[in-house]
Write a structure and sequence with these properties.
Layout: E1 3-9, E2 13-20, E3 25-32, E4 44-45, H1 47-65, E5 72-79, E6 85-87, E7 97-98, H2 106-115, H3 118-125, H4 134-144, H5 146-151, E8 154-156, H6 158-167, E9 171-173, H7 174-178, E10 183-184, E11 189-190, H8 192-198, E12 207-209, E13 214-217, H9 220-226, E14 233-235, E15 238-239, H10 240-247, E16 255-260, E17 264-270, E18 282-285, E19 292-296, H11 302-312, H12 314-323, H13 327-336, E20 346-348, E21 366-368, H14 376-400, E22 407-411, H15 418-428, E23 432-435, H16 440-453, H17 459-466, E24 469-473, H18 477-506
Parallel strand pairs: 1-5, 5-14, 5-15, 9-12, 16-22, 22-23
Antiparallel strand pairs: 1-2, 2-3, 4-7, 6-8, 10-11, 13-14, 16-17, 17-19, 18-19, 20-21, 23-24
Helix pairs in contact: 1-6, 2-4, 10-16, 11-14, 13-14, 14-15, 15-18
Length: about 500
Amino acid sequence: MTYLIGVDIGTSATKAVLIDETGNIKAQASAGYPMYEPANGWAEQDPLDWKKAVLSAVKKIVEASKVNKEDVAGIGLTGQMHGLVMLDESCQPMGRSIIWCDQRSGRQAQKMKEMMSLEKWLDITSNPPLAGWTAAKIMWVRENRPEVYAKCKKILLPKDYIRYVLTGAFATDVSDATGMQLLDVKNRCWSDTVLELLNIPRELLGNVYESQEVTGTLLPEIAEELGLSENTVVVAGASDNAAAAIGTGVVREGQAFTTIGTSAVVYSHLDHYAAVPEGGLHLCCCAVPGCYHTMGGPQSAGLSLEWFKEKFCQDFILQALKEGRNIHEVINQMTKEIPIGSDKLIFLPFLLGERTPHMEPDYRGAFVGLSNIHSQGHLLRAIMEGVAYCLADCNNILKELGVSITDMRVCGGGSRSPVWQKILADLYRCDIHTMQQEEGPAYGAAILAGVGAGAFSDIPSACDRFIKEDKTIQWNETEAAKYRQYHQIYDRIYEHLKTDFSALAKT
């Protein structure tokens, strides 16, 4: 029996799964770590925390499954996009990584827009310059920490730092590389034009591979520590969303999924390259060779819910602990009886600025319409609805582009909420489907490992074999009509406040 491992380096934790050649999950484990916020709009994590978590989680699943080490054929990597990991001449991390949701490099993103026309950025990188993407972060470090940049010998993304730890190889894949804003997306290679424009030496970057391609094998000392063979291959892997698409079977035109984790995304598969006017959605290479995907959604999705829960709901958290109840089940119970529109309360989910469809690092969160009738349940429900309004805006852009979504799936922690599922179905005005497998990105990475190791012939056929839908959540015309009213108000509130957000950021 052949076994495969998928590793997902997430924002709150690393998850590892071990599957067999029939697609069954044999073991899984996770290990958490902190996120640091040294200033407003900043977000950092320590790459050494990722390393420790990955080695711990993989070791646990290998030991728990009791598999023969020679039977573990491959490892696939996925994880958070856009993070900047800089290594010194000894290949050690130069401090914390500036991660995906950090917005400090807004000025650098603006400078990038002035250096080259928007049309040219879209033609090469398929996306407008963004503060949260890696290129702007590199420029910020060069301008604000020149002594660090001068000593930098390699620039990697989070999952690709783990690849170096496991194999000693410097490499990335096309889906994750898209989010660096340094890739020629149509041609799936580094852009000499952009690298020259931004004065970033090519030798700082790793080689670019398709997601299922083998990038190396385990180093002897790592293999010994993990209880695996030195012959275990490590494939290029994919960004978290591209891997989640594999893990949910979204590998053909017309298929899409929504995931709600720390951030949230509505993702649509494209069989061929198709430009997105004005960059209203991210357009990226996907993990299926030769294919692409769009994605968009709020940076602060599950994060908004966790923020409110931790800051303002300690009373019912303690009560849930006393009663032995799952806190998220309590939240669902509190919110399911709150009426559509949360009794005329709207939340803007911009705690860490925004990327799509508004693309503004200065935006911040807001509750609008608060009154003395509103309880914790109202505010929690308003957060869920605010995240869904933003996702629906992105889905509407897809419709305007003529992309017909015939199959919308959901995955990710927040997407398991029955309340959130129903809100999404009504706002999308289409049925949505849950999946039997719930470890989307890690499971997708394991499938990629299987293709690279020769256990599966190709990505779509493996998904057809293993990925199964579970439940269907049906949308309701009457409820959708009510949501449409509140959604229109949400969009107008954003328009009214955007200049105030900008002014507030400058105070």
